[in-house]
Amino acid sequence: MEPHLELRDVRKAFGHVVAVDTLSMVVSRGTICGLLGPNGAGKTTSIRMIMRISLPDRGSVLLGGEPMTDELRERIGYLPEERGLYRKMKVLEHLEFLGEVRGLERREARRRGAAWLERLGLAEVRSRRVEELSKGMQQKVQFAGAVIHEPEVVILDEPFTGLDPIATRLLKDLILEMRERGTTVLFSTHVLPQAEELCDHLCLINRGRAILQGTMEQARARFARPALLVRSQAPDAAILAVAGIEAVRAHDDQRIAELADGASVAEVIRSLAQALPLEGAEPYRASLEDIFLRAVEEDHVPAA
Amino acid sequence: MFRLRKVAVVIRREYLSRVRTKAFWISTLAFPAVILAFAILPNYLAMRSGGSYTVALVSDDPELSNRTAVQVRERMAQQGDEGGAVVITLREEPLEADGAAQRTRLKREIADKQLSGALFVTRAGVEKGRVEYLTTNTSAWRLMGRLEGSVGAGVRRMRLEGEGVAPERIEALVRGVDVSPVKVGKDLSENQEGVMQSFFLSYILMFLLWMSVMIYGMYVMRGVLEEKSSRIVEVIVGNLSPTELMVGKIAGVGAVGLTQYLIWTLIAINLAVPGLASVVLGATAPTITPAILFFFVLFFVLGYVLYSTFYAALGAAFNSEEEAQQMQSVAGWIIGLPFVLMFPVINNPDSTLAVVFSLIPFFAPVLFFLRISVQTPPVWQTVLCIGLLLATIVAMARFAAAVYRVGILMYGKKPTVKEIIRWMRSS
User: Fold this and answer.
1) Are B156 and B168 in contact (CB under 8 A)?
2) Which of B1, B21, B235, B406 should be substituted to probe chain A, the one whose Cβ sees the most A Cβ atoms within 10 Å?
3) Which residues of B touch A88 (CB under 8 A)?
4) Distance, CA of A12 to chain centre
């Protein structure tokens, strides 16, 4: 797939603190890429460097293979982490303004703004002032303002923060629709279920470095150990005592038993059934959260 | 990057979002009302401040007492009834042997409000040229003016008659002479308009200029701070360069200021203000010549651009109004300094002091305009002044753009002077 947005060995330090350290990542055209990482990993700093809000100390950012410039940047729709709108402006006028700033004719900006408000279920607040809207509503307005000019790349910094489940669903649908139209989407989040549902590709960064890049399957293959989902009343210790099981942890009201290297799934299930009163056991498909935790953990305890 | 189309979008937003507020219209309409109220009310009230007064006239000389009383009555008979008459009832009494006791009694009567005051016209006092008036209200200007005039005129008449001048000739002999200034224009025109009026006009215009440059500069700073604190900058910075944003903001807010002037001018032209002005200023209303109006607008625009650019940089460099306060008051002092120099400049607009200070770009908007309104300066000075102003504006704009570019996206940290200088160098 054709690389659309690229970071090459980008580094940014604030004083002695290195926020992003030789980060390289590629977002392919027409895909959704999740930028994941714990708080302070360097997600926002990376995005701000893509947007040229701050410039990298080293390395380069490319859009469509060309070094990023102020002109190229206009092709990106950007929703910053910190929400910001003119509080005293009326909602539709605000969208009109943002549309015009992003290069649309005034009438077209107004038409699209109205259509967006309709789509976001905000049609009836179009003449209200921004400050009268709830935070979630403001966020929707700002999202519309970020993509009103139908940019080829959309960058969303923590887009789901503060949204209720309905708004979250809506936003997910909108992101998927954008991909259908061929838009490239990069979004950052630390809410992993959302990322799991949306991402074609993920980039996990920790302490300013990419520690994992690829598809969900590639991530699983790299970080997830084979494990079983165990339903049983037996205590953890009893499960751990079964041959081939290396670790046990709670998962909802069930337990996840990680298998030792080389242990066979069928073999271990059989042993479990013999050793305990077992209600059920099945292979466990690692979630993004598991991968995330494992990857971050490994990164902090470098393998000797 | 500088694209006029984008700047126009910013100007439109800045302009409409301000002009559409109630606050704009209230302040625009309230200002002339307040100015008129301040100008008219004190005069008006002072004129209406007639009243009845009972004054004890104490003297050790019956003739002196009588002369004074005659003058008081004459003046009372002459006064029209416009603006409320001052009615004075005199109670003549001789100076008693026990002066101290009499004084105490009179003071008690004054304190008890039975008397408005006691005027001691004694021979010794007249000799020294100073007589006493005891009262609780030392600010009854009209009453005291009347008393002073009466005593003076009475004494003068008495002395002249003592020298053998015929009483009927005295009026003609003591009449004074007024000097009335005639302003000569460049075209040798003569203008009899009161100098006082044109002074007032200069003062009001100068004050207006100073105030609007300050206020609109402040609006620019607040706007920048709002954009910073609401993080809106980050939302639009992808599509607007900081320079475009800054220029658009300054132009948009400036247009609001000009709109306000336009409204005021229309009010002044159309409403009863000419009539009111004559009430305020006594005689004919001073006319604002087109030239003065032109220079007023010119110096507003230049002064506003200079200072608002500075204020924009302040807004970009700091995070809150409190932080920016110190620097802000520095700007306030600099632009306010012309008020200290106002009188020397008005007295002698061509003095070295006036010329030098009025050419310094930071003072020029107010001070040079003041000179123009008093006396037309040489053309070369006008050209030099505007040239210097423009050059300073360009330099200030470059400084501000540098600060703006970096500062507007920098949060949380107060910049040091060193950093600001570094930003300037890097631009």
Assistant:
1) no
2) B235
3) 17, 21
4) 21
Question: How near does any CA of chain B get to the CA of A33, in Å?
Answer: 21
Q: Which two tokens mark A67? A: 């070094």
Could you tell me the CA-to-CA distances from B188 to A208, B191, B422 in Å, in that order?
79, 10, 55
Q: What angle do CA A29, A35, A36 make, to 5 degrees?
A: 155
Give tens-digit pLDDT for B303-331.
999 989 988 888 888 877 787 777 777 77
Nearest chain A alpha carbon to B240: A101
Q: Which H or E run includes B25?
A: helix B22-47
Contact B84, B49 (CB under 8 A): yes
**Whether the predicted pLDDT of A77 surpasses 80:** yes
- Strands B51-59 and B86-94: what pairing? parallel
Distances (CA, A) of A173 to A146, A199, A277: 16, 13, 44
Residues of chain A with Cβ-Cβ distance to B11 below 8 Å are: none
State the pLDDT at residue A245: 83
How does pLDDT run across B205-244, given as a tens digit for each residue? 888 888 888 888 888 998 888 888 888 888 887 888 888 8
Task: Name chain B contacts of A89, Cβ cutoff 8 Å.
Answer: 13, 17
Give pLDDT, residue A303: 47
Q: What is the C-alpha separation between B381 and B376, in angstroms, rounded?
A: 10
Name the percent of chain B in helix, strand, coil, to the closest 5. Answer: 70, 5, 25
Alpha carbon distance B279, A59 (integer Å): 74
Residue A188, CA distances (Å) to A106, A203, B203, B284 in order: 31, 9, 60, 73
> Tokens standing for B406?
């970096």
Cβ–Cβ below 8 Å for B231 and A98: no
By C-alpha distance, which of B122, B255, B235, B275 is closest to A145? B235
A62 - beta bridge partners?
Answer: A6, A67
Q: Lay out the sheet containing A17-28: strands in order across.
A: A17-28, A3-14, A58-63, A66-67
Contact B238 A78 (CB under 8 A): yes
B361, B302 Cβ separation under 8 angstroms:
no
- Contact at CB, B236 and A80, closer than 8 angstroms: no
pLDDT in tens, B38-80: 767 776 676 666 678 889 999 998 888 988 998 888 888 877 6
- The beta-carbon neighbor of B237 closest among A53, A88, A145 is A53
Residue (of A112, A105, A194, A107) closest to A146 by Cα position? A112
Q: Is the dihedral of CA A173, A176, A178, A184 positive or negative?
A: positive
* Assessment of whether the complete model's pTM goes beyond 0.90: no
List beta partners, residue B91: B56
Distance in angstroms between the alpha carbons of the first and the last residue of chain B: 13
Between A84, A89, A100, which is nearest B234 by CB? A84
Q: Do B238 and A76 touch (CB under 8 A)?
A: yes
Roughly what angle, to the nearest 10 degrees, separates helices B242-270 and B22-47? Answer: 40
Do B59 and B121 contact (CB within 8 A), yes or no? yes
Interface contact flag, B13 A97, Cβ < 8 Å: yes
Nearest Cβ partner of B230 from A71, A73, A85? A85
Listed in order, strand segments (DSSP E) in A173-299 are: 184-189, 201-206, 209-214, 227-232, 245-251, 254-259, 278-283
What distance in Å separates the CA atoms of residue A288 and residue A224, rounded to the nearest whole number? 9
CA distance A276 to A249: 17
Query: Helices marked H in B48-193 — which ranges?
Result: 62-78, 99-111, 123-128, 141-162, 167-174
